[in-house]
Amino acid sequence: MADEGLFPWKDLPLGCAGTEPGSSRRFNTGDWRSRRYPVTDREVCIKCGLCWIICPDMAYSPDPEAEGYYTWDSYYCKGCGICLEECPKDAISWKEEKEEDKYGPACGA
Amino acid sequence: MGRRVGLEVSLACAEVVGLCNADVVAAYPITPQTHIVEHLSEMVADGHLDAEFVPVESEHSAMSCCVGSSAAGARTFTSTSSQGLALMHEILFIAASLRLPIVMAVANRSLSGPISIWNDHSDIMAERDIGWIQTFAENGQEVVDLTIHAFKVAEDSRVCLPVAVNLDGFILTHVIEPIELPDKEEVDAYLPAFEPSQSLDTANPISMGIVGMPEIYTEAKKANAVALEDSYEVIKEHWAGMAEKFGRTYKPIETYRTDDADTVFVTMGSLGETTMSAVDQMREDGINVGQVRIRLWRPFPVEDFMEAIAGAKTLIVIDRALSPGLPAGPVATELRGLLYAKGASPYVANFVCGLGGRDVTRAQFIEMYQTAQKAAASGEEMTCQMVGVKE
């Protein structure tokens, strides 16, 4: 179906307004990523949280299973590399990504 | 029943915006719009109008500010002209696509270069596709009435679209005319307080101006286009309401002596009054000529226009702007397309005149008529002619 996933024009809110708060959460910015994704070496990581603060797509969040560390979400990471650039310990590096495991790794650890 | 006053049309425009209880006016002065916003600024400063006057640093900011204030639920007015309208360009589309009922008076003026502050329709013709409702006034009284009507239509929950009221720079803006200004109570009764269909409200948060991915952009544009088309009925309904309230009747297409006319002039804006006097003179000479005035330019009143020109063998379409590179002005181009689609084939003669403030005389309309008759008799296609160019 060519029109799969489309909204009928009559159903759009007035002026195409976003009437549901936080709807951008559904926006798969990870789809923009190509070839590689960031991986944090937790041996080097000092838990400063800079990756969490500076990530423009909020792909990082506190790891509920390892206090002080941060997990990475493939759904939102668009592969910009700002975390690699800003990490004070150079703990984050690229890993080559195969098409089949694009949404595979839930965490770079 | 209002009061009859002798008033410069710009001041009348400002006064009527006051009568309409505008909440926010954001504008940047530009000739020949200046007196409109100058007077509004004065009215706010003197406490005659309880509104926020925002003296922005450019027209781009003026329209951006209007978008913000209208989105916040304020009755919003601005006015501009020529280069100022051009500088607003990108925001004009946004105002329409966000469905914000902003009202703007456009004091029509030519575009540079050469630099010209004088009247023609180059500015608004360059903004044809902004998605706004667009009307043209022929005299001061029409400016007053169309401005009240503009707020009424724009804010109607069935419409929610911005409206541009066009008035010719200098020819209207700087001329003192006898005008009937309605009473405040009359306007209040006709135009109640603005109740936005949706607005920015922390208790009920929404996002305006969000990204439209390819999956949604087409549908969003379709919704906008349909809203503009559907506004036609509401526009007519509110003109009928105005006739009842204020005693003056307006139609999307106005006709003058067209009943038995073989040849019909098609005009927009104040030049129509000169055309009318030329039609009168030709009628006295036994020539069956009439006139059609396009009051509503967007949404274009297709059926009204077809009905108005139904009996005519020849149309003389007057353009007040050039479309360089095409042998027809913008109005004639549109009308030819429309006639073709309708299978109608009157002979269309097209003249561009009154550019950059050049006067167009009654005698020139008679010359246009003669040229058109000759061309129509020859049956050969007539490319657009510029009137009064010195060789």
Would you summarize the structure shown here?
Chain A is mainly beta and 109 residues long. Chain A is built from two helices and four strands; from the N terminus they run E-H-E-E-H-E.
Could you tell me how far the N terminus lies from the C terminus of chain A, measured between alpha carbons in angstroms?
A: 39 Å
Structurally, the number of domains of chain B stands at 2
Please report the first level of CATH classification, the CATH class of the largest domain in chain B.
Alpha Beta
Mean pLDDT of chain B: 97
The CATH topology of the largest domain in chain B comes to Rossmann fold
- What is the string of SSEs of chain A from the N terminus onward? EHEEHE
Integer-rounded radius of gyration of chain A: 17 Å
Helicity range of chain A: under 10%
If classified by CATH, what would the architecture of the largest domain in chain B be? 3-Layer(aba) Sandwich
What composes the largest sheet of chain A?
2 strands, antiparallel
* Cα radius of gyration of chain B in angstroms: 21 Å
Search tags:
heterodimer, A: 109 residues, mainly beta, Alpha-Beta Plaits, two-stranded antiparallel sheet, 9% helix, elongated, B: 391 residues, alpha/beta, Rossmann fold, 2 domains, 7-stranded mixed beta sheet, 6-stranded mixed beta sheet, 42% helix, globular
Task: Walk me through the structure.
The complex is a heterodimer of chains A (109) and B (391). Chain A has 109 residues and is mainly beta. Chain A has helices at 50-54, 82-86, and strands spanning 36-40, 60-62, 70-72, 92-96. A two-stranded antiparallel sheet of chain A has the order 1-4. In chain A, strands 2-3 form a two-stranded antiparallel sheet. Chain B has 391 residues and is an alpha/beta fold. Helix content of chain B is 42%, strand content 19%. In chain B, helix 4 (82-97) links the parallel strand 4 (76-80) and strand 5 (103-108). Chain B is globular, with a radius of gyration of 21 Å. Chain B starts with a strand and ends in a 5-residue tail after the last strand. Chain A binds chain B through residues 5-10, 12-19, 21, 23, and chain B through 97-100, 160, 197-198, 205-208, 210, 212, 215-216, 218-220, 222-223, 226.
